[in-house]
Amino acid sequence: MIRSISVAAAIMAAALTASAAGAGYYNATPVAAPAKPNLIAGDLIWKCDGAVCSAAKSTSRDAIVCEQVVKRLGAVSTFTANGAAFDAAALAKCNTRAK
């Protein structure tokens, strides 16, 4: 029980850190630093500050946006949409699309 609480706390802390650092509707923390500060994934322009990449709201579903950005960025350690972090299962599914 304590272990699951600490894991949940770590996920929430990472999500809050990503949300605080990012300024967009979507925020992604790439595992490896992006080569360029800006990129286009799907219909969105992503701006990266080195640690977090952010983009404005899209008309696509959040899971699709995540898959589109990992195709360009590679795997991400966190992904948030409107301040809500993807859980471990959703993040793992998204990362299967990574380049």
TrEMBL record:
Keywords: Signal. InterPro entries: CC_3452-like, DUF8200. It comes from the Bacteria. Residues 1-20 form the signal peptide. NCBIfam families: CC_3452_fam. This is Uncharacterized protein. It comes from Sphingomonas qilianensis.
